[in-house]
Amino acid sequence: MGRNFVPSEANFVLVEVGDAASVFKKLQAKGIIVRSMVSYRMPAWIRVSIGTPAQLDRFLAEFPGVFPQA
What we know:
It is a single chain. The chain contains two helices and four strands; from the N terminus they run ββαββα. By secondary structure, the chain is an alpha+beta fold. The chain has a single domain, classed as Alpha-Beta Complex (Aspartate Aminotransferase, domain 1). The protein has a four-stranded antiparallel β-sheet with strand order 1-2-4-3, covered by helices on one side.
């Protein structure tokens, strides 16, 4: 999807999204919970936990739609 991320061996991935607070709110409004990393002094990043295949499919379907169209 063209986003920077931090490779991980944990059950989550950090993804650079620009305005993490805004992306968090937009995904939350769609019923998708991620964690904004603003409180960790990483205001451009969200943490995406690895869920079930169905949860990941839903995240991947909705994630591109939370960014302004260029």
